[in-house]
Target: Putative 4Fe-4S ferredoxin
Amino acid sequence: MALLITDECINCDVCEPACPNEAISEGDDIYVIDPDLCTECVGHFDEPQCVVICPVDCIPHDPNHVETESDLMSKYKRITGK
Model:
């Protein structure tokens, strides 16, 4: 599944540069994750880097974008051209 950033986000700006797919950007009030670009770091790392680095634990799975590991790997390959 893709991830999402909740309204508990404190806009600390550590997640955006940590995302290898550039799926995180500034939203109107908090950072947002583009589900079309989020692979939960599959293909890049063993765990989502935004989740690892977030100081307030505000990045859960997005229940509206359920994906399997295989789906995430396919998305990674599409995004990176690998």
About this structure: The chain has a mean pLDDT of 96. The first helix runs from residue 15 to 18.
